Amino acid sequence: MVVEKDREDGRLLWIKFNYPERLNVLHSEMADEFWDALVKADMDEEVQAILVTGLGKAFCAGADVREISSVDFDKCLRWFNSYWRILDLLRETGKPTIAVVKGACVAGGNELVMMCDLVVAGKSAKFGQPELGVGSTASGGGTQLLPFLIGDRRAREIIFTQKLLNAEEAYMFGLINRVVDDDKVEDEARKLAQEIIDKCSPQAFRVAKSVLRFWTDLSMLTLRLARDITALVWTSPEFRERVKDFLEKRPYKPKKFTGVM
If DSSP states are collapsed to H, E and C, what string results for the chain? Predict the structure, then answer.
């Protein structure tokens, strides 16, 4: 992770994913660094707004499936918990959080974006939850929050088909706030952050954000159950087979759909 103050306004802190050769996939070390950066930003009185972005051609492509497909059930639970504390702090901090997105923003990356207060995207941005294709569940926030933000039917289609939304579609669906040219994304995010911190009472902002969180909390009621079931999925032969095909760029082998009865 790269953590740095804004070059024009020292009240703004940028937290940047820095694993561009693998589309900024989130592995354990990066998750720990992200958490540490968020905690410090939350406690730093000089930091008034937090902007999250990715270096290179992607925002974040989600969890590092190479890592999670090789660990046991308990380690999967710990990975999920370390990931979720990041998502929770993005929603909990009393400071504005803004996702600044260019390129791929999928799976856990899209979940991170949904946890931020606001989203500014470049026209190259792509949003989605393609986890079902690789055998995972999209249950780190995707299946919970996406239906709340864009509607159940749209969310089902996106999750089931792994369709990626372009920036304009994401804006029309209400997933993001603003779309600009890629070379203007940082400037637009900076202006948005400044507009909030210059106009809002910090105390009133914290209260409003806390009350608004009530609605997203409702969608998170099944998170612990989803964590446990997802950990079981991650240790299953089917998931590991799909991950191997994905990493080796081979076509997936279709499997029969069966009922639960």
Answer: CEEEECCCCCCEEEEEECCHHHCCCECHHHHHHHHHHHHHHHHCCCCCEEEEEECCCEEECCECHHHHCCCCHHHHHHHHHHHHHHHHHHHHCCCCEEEEECCEEECHHHHHHHHCCEEEEECCCEEECCHHHHCCCCCCCHHHHHHHHHCHHHHHHHHHHCCCEEHHHHHHHCCCCEEECHHHHHHHHHHHHHHHHHHCCHHHHHHHHHHHHHHHHHHCCCHHHHHHHHHHHHCCHHHHHHHHHHHCCCCCCCCCCCCCC
Confidence of residue 223 (pLDDT cuts 50, 70, 90): confident
- Closest of 91, 36, 259, 160 to residue 28, by C-alpha: 36
Check 131, 169, 186, 188 and give the catalytic one: 131
Lowest mean pLDDT among 42-46, 217-221, 244-248: 217-221
Please confirm, yes or no, whether 168 is among the known catalytic residues.
no
Residue from 55, 5, 57 nearest 30 by CA: 55
Q: Which candidate in 4, 45, 111, 168 is catalytic?
A: 111
- Cα distance from N-terminal residue to C-terminal residue, the chain: 46
Is there a contact between 20 and 51 (Cβ–Cβ < 8 Å)?
A: no
What pTM was computed for the model?
0.95
Is 241 in the active site?
A: no
Q: How far apart are CA 35 and CA 145, in angstroms?
A: 21
Second-level CATH architecture of 2-199: Alpha-Beta Complex (3.90)
At 64 the pLDDT is: 94
What is the rounded CA–CA span in Å between residue 243 and residue 237?
A: 10
